[in-house]
């Protein structure tokens, strides 16, 4: 599976499931992606909100824990991420934690409507990590979709 496959599925989810509420299409996307993910033990589903794409990896994971794992070999992981983002390798060629991140950002976050954050936020961050000028832990401050619901609404005050 290539980045373009995940991204295309995320765009379709956004248009057909998130916006239109078509749960028949949702179930087909889930089935197709889970079949394509095969033996990677990463599974796609939906959250308690029926339109919300969810990536399951057998244990609860968040951006902070993923970033901590990726920072153990930050520059190499950044180079691999860039290669995958350029459709230069298969998802199965990546280390496990990077597989998780790629399915989350290219499918789930795109499905939630954050596809533009790849170009504007994530790619510049990964470039900085690759050059040794930043770390994966900066996902929490430089990539908007990494914010939890509570973090995203923290500064919002209804007057």
Give a verbal description of the structure:
This protein is mainly alpha-helical and 159 residues long. Helices cover 58% and strands 5% of the residues. The protein contains 8 helices and 2 strands, in the order ααββαααααα. A two-stranded antiparallel ribbon has the order 1-2. The radius of gyration is 15 Å and the shape is globular. The relative contact order is 0.16. The model has no long low-confidence stretch (mean pLDDT 93).
Q: Quick gist of this model?
A:
With 159 residues, the protein is mainly alpha-helical. It is 58% helix and 5% strand.
In whole angstroms, the N-to-C terminal distance is: 48 Å
Number of strands: 2
- Which structural category do the helix and sheet elements fall into? mainly alpha
Q: What is the strand arrangement across the widest sheet?
A: 1-2
Percentage of residues in DSSP E strands? 5-15%
Gyration radius, to the nearest Å? 15 Å
Question: How do the helices and strands follow one another from N- to C-terminus?
Answer: HHEEHHHHHH
Low-confidence stretches: none
> What is the arithmetic mean of pLDDT?
93
Tally of DSSP helical segments: 8
């Amino acid at each position: 599976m290539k980045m373009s496959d995940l991204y295309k599925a995320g765009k379709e989810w956004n248009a057909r499931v998130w916006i239109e509420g078509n749960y028949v299409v949702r179930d087909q996307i889930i089935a197709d992606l889970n079949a394509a993910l095969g033996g990677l033990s990463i599974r796609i589903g939906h959250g308690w909100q029926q339109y919300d794409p969810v990536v399951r990896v057998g244990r609860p994971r968040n951006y902070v824990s993923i970033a901590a794992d990726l920072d153990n070999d930050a520059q190499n992981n950044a180079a691999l991420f860039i290669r995958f983002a350029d459709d230069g390798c298969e998802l199965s060629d990546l280390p496990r934690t990077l597989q998780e991140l790629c399915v989350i950002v290219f499918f789930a976050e795109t499905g939630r409507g954050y596809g533009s954050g790849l170009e504007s936020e994530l790619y510049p961050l990964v470039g900085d990590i690759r050059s040794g000028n930043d770390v994966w832990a900066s996902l929490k401050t430089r990539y908007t979709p990494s914010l939890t619901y509570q973090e995203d609404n923290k500064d919002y005050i209804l007057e």
